[in-house]
Amino acid sequence: MSILRLAIPSPLRRPFDYLPPEDMSEAQLENLQPGVRFRVPFGKRELTGYLLEVCTESAVPGSTLKAALALLDETPLVDPQLQQLCLWASSYYHHPLGEVYSTLFPKRLREGKPPLPAGTPGWQLTTRAKGLPEEALPGSPRQAQAISLLRQHECMASTELKSSGISATVLRSLQDKRLIEPRLISEHSHTFKINDSLSLNAEQATVLQSVLDAGHGFSCHLLEGVTGSGKTEIYLQLIADCLQRERQALVLVPEIGLTPQTLARFQQRFDANIAVLHSGLTDAQRYLAWEAARSGSAQIVIGTRSAVFTPLAKPGLLIVDEEHDSSYKQQDGFRYSARDVAVKRAHIHGCPILLGSATPSLESIQNAEVGRYQHQQITQRASSAGMPAIQALDVRKQVLHAGLSDTLITAVEQTLQQGQQVLLFLNRRGYAPTLQCHDCGWIAECRACDARLTVHRRRRRLRCHHCGASSVLHRQCPQCHSERLLAAGLGTEQTEDFLHTRFTQWPVHRVDSDSMQTKGAMQALADEINRGEPCILLGTQMLTKGHHFPAVSLVAVIDVDALLFSADFRGEERMAQLLTQVAGRAGRAELMGKVLLQTHYPDHPALLAMLSTTYGAQARAMLAQRRETGLPPAGQLVLMRTDCRDAEYGEQFLQTLREHCTPHLPPDTRLIGPLPSPMQRRAGKYRCQLLLTAPDRSSAQAAASLLVANAEGLPARQGLNWSIDIDPQDVF
Ligand code: ADP
Ligand code: ZN
Ligand code: ZN
Predict the structure, then answer these.
(1) CA separation (Å) from 670 to 61, 206, 520, 652, 722?
(2) Cα–Cα 20 to 30 A to 661, which of 60, 390, 442, 592?
(3) Which atom of ligand 1 is found nearest the CA of 383?
(4) Helix (H, G, I), strand (E, B) or coil at 339
(5) Cβ atoms of 6 and 49 closer than 8 Å
(6) CATH match for 636-726 among 3.30.70.600, 1.25.40.10, 3.30.200.20, 3.40.640.10
(7) Angle made by CA atoms 515, 519, 522, in degrees to the nearest 5
(8) Quick check: CB of 198 below 6 Å from ligand 1?
(9) Sign of the torsion angle spanned by Cα atoms 561, 564, 568, 573
(10) CB contact at 8 A, 192 and 301
């Protein structure tokens, strides 16, 4: 008897056995390859399952086995290496295999639909249309929509355009105007052209050569290069080498690092098919980019976190830019680190991988120190300017205007008068983080979270930045009906208002997730800033990633103190990374840069370290501390979390789990908790956690298996959810 063992997207951490579909022939059964999709009955639903193996015995009695409904693929859509990666990730992160498998596939395929056949008719922009400025494009809304869809994508299938509301008539008139042309999707195109590259300086050349010398097999390199040292140029030249070998390059960038500027740099260098994958794509766009990567027609694939699972026909090189960035870690559901998965993937494919950052994670620095990664360093900026000078600005006893001291205001004014740009960093959006009644002390709090509501004055709303709840901004105190409501504390909207009135001659641009909501807003702003006219940029961390603003010569952090006191053991590392990255926006071209940090704690050790040493030196000192305390990367952490509407029950669940596991824990591992999470109540649920510390990876893994096996055996009442997080990012 043949039994199909399938991975099914379900929270249960085990494979599921099925009988073959009734209409399946012996020959078909014999030819089945792992990875093919089946449609199967699952409870009352039908789901897509992925074949793991064909076996002859099942723990489930044959009579109760159900038959799969249909075989969906002749051959698997993803290669054995990628399937191997899924098996590894499922086991390492203790996440259900079926759910890991389904992250491989775009929606259409997860739903069990067939792939669009190669040669599906589609459309792309003509070279002429690509070169035309926005204004010269057609006025009809449908035509403009079609152009904008095709701009975002190499090409789109006619059917997908139709489902986006673009009729054949619209397409025909665009074709008549020579703006679009027909093209067959998934056509193999080997043609590409590499445009002129920069000639590398000595440090860059050494790095490039040593990565090339490591060969085409697996090798992992940590490229530690100061901000503006020309890391991207090295990526581009390595990719050029990869394309010449007729292989594909996969480049991962942080969530908000995938800016139009970054993309433009790749597009300028390569006349090639570049597939772009990020969270803002429609399902149809995602499918086409995925298919282009899988078929090999895209030579370069650039994407954010989940792009690490994109199938590649001919993988040749992986790059993880800003490898320290926390957006590589998925924080819910399948909690994986795309950086770590990428290293594993390169290992499985047998190809080189490069992790780049000006501020590498302590994990990667340690890996470089023990020789697991090859350490490549660039200590000088590529431009003539050199590193910016960093100063603390003591604001004690000073008058602050929307957070700005007079000294800072003067520095801003001088910079603008010299015709240069200013970047002000304030990591709090909205107008003010608190709304308080002056007469009775009432404070606006979120109903569902242990958190205060943020005042958003532009839209006249109060918002919770934790659960997204939003309500109309009060005019009166709900408790005493006083109208004397105070917006306490500082947010970007407030500072923007002040800057507008204080610096009337100069433009002020606010950059945060509120102001950059519309598509193309960031592009328009980047274009504006790169014209180089004096202006003020005020923004959150959105401003710090992936941007290259050559005319910025002054950078100021309005409230460094907000970063100084963190309960998390990674707080200091994050602060050093963030400040180094913010500071790195200054003086990237010929201008000498200056960085001012406003603080009430000019003697704080972390701040003094920032001023006196490099990130590299700070990181090594922090690493030494971690070795003393046994915290990552010296030791390993695993976090069990619960969330539950009932405040007590989650804690009881973890307490019972702890009691069951303690006698069987591997030596030198320890359980801490259960403890309430730092923000105990979020979106109406009470959160609790149990932390495991372990001296090394294998004991952490053994303990994690123990925790999961026991948690699965415990009754989870009261709508309790539990999850396990391997190598958690946020612990306290
Ligand atoms: P990073 O990625 O390390 O922050 P970039 O690659 O963005 O640095 O380079 C910073 C600036 O220096 C860019 O404007 C880039 O064009 C320029 N640059 C990089 N390498 C060279 C080089 N070898 N010669 C001249 N300019 C360079
Ligand atoms: Zn009141
Ligand atoms: Zn809330």
Answers:
(1) 40, 45, 50, 19, 19
(2) 60
(3) 12
(4) helix
(5) yes
(6) 3.30.70.600
(7) 55
(8) yes
(9) positive
(10) no
Token pair recorded at residue 239: 């990719």
Lowest-pLDDT choice from 161-165, 189-193, 484-488: 189-193
Q: Is the pLDDT of residue 133 over 80?
A: no
DSSP 70-114: EE--SS-SS-HHHHHHHHHHHHHHT--HHHHHHTTS-HHHHTTPP
Task: Report CA(401)–ligand 2 centroid distance (Å).
Answer: 26
C-alpha distances in angstroms, 613 versus 544, 583, 597, 605, 609?
A: 21, 13, 15, 12, 6
Sequence-separated (6 or more) residues with CB below 8 Å from residue 710? 657, 660, 661
Whose CA is closest to 554, among 514, 506, 609?
506
Radius of gyration of the chain (CA): 27
Q: Which of 569, 725, 730 is nearest to 93 (CA)?
A: 725
Closest approach atom of ligand 1 to CA 226: 3
Mean pLDDT value across residues 262-274: 87
Determine the Cα–Cα distance for residues 314 and 330; give it in Å rounded to an integer.
Answer: 26
- Architecture in CATH for domain 3-110: 3-Layer(aba) Sandwich (3.40)
What would you measure as the largest C-alpha separation in the chain, in angstroms? Answer: 85
Helices 260-269 and 231-244, axial angle in degrees (round to 10)? 40
Q: What residue's CA is closest to ligand 1, atom 19? A: 230
Which residue CA neighbors atom 6 of ligand 1 most closely?
Answer: 230
Taking residues 293-302, what's their average pLDDT? 92
Give phi and psi for 275, each to the nearest 5.
Answer: -90, 130
Paired strand residues for 6: 16, 51
Determine if ligand 1 sits within 6 Å of the CB of residue 204: yes
**β-strand partners of 454:** 463
CA dihedral of 72, 73, 79, 84, whole degrees rounded to 10: 40
* Test site for ligand 1: of 226, 232, 354, 384, most ligand atoms within 8 A of the Cβ: 232
Q: Is omega for the bond preceding 507 within 30 degrees of 0, making it cis? A: no
Contact 345 CB / ligand 1 (< 6 Å): no
pLDDT attached to residue 185: 67
| Helical pair 571-583 and 615-629, crossing angle rounded to 10 deg | 170
Q: What topology does CATH give the domain 193-378?
A: Rossmann fold (3.40.50)
Name residues whose C-beta falls within 8 Å of residue 488's C-beta, 6 or more positions apart in sequence: 432, 433, 434, 435, 436
Check pLDDT > 70 for residue 572: yes
CATH 3.40.50.300 fits 389-429+491-627, yes or no: yes
Q: Output the 3-class SS for 359-428.
A: CCCHHHHHHHHCCCCEEEEECCCCCCCCCCEEEEEECCCCCEECCEEHHHHHHHHHHHHCCCEEEEECCC
Q: What's the pLDDT tens digit per position in 421-459?
A: 999 999 999 999 999 999 999 999 999 999 999 999 999
State in Å: Cα 278 to ligand 2 middle.
46
Contacts of 238 (CB under 8 A, 6+ apart): 208, 211, 212, 249, 317, 319, 354
The pLDDT, as a whole number, for residue 168 is 85
Nearest one of 703, 700, 715, 725 to 652, comparing CA atoms? 715
d(CA 246, CA 350) in angstroms, rounded, equals: 15
CB 243 within 8 A of CB 272: yes
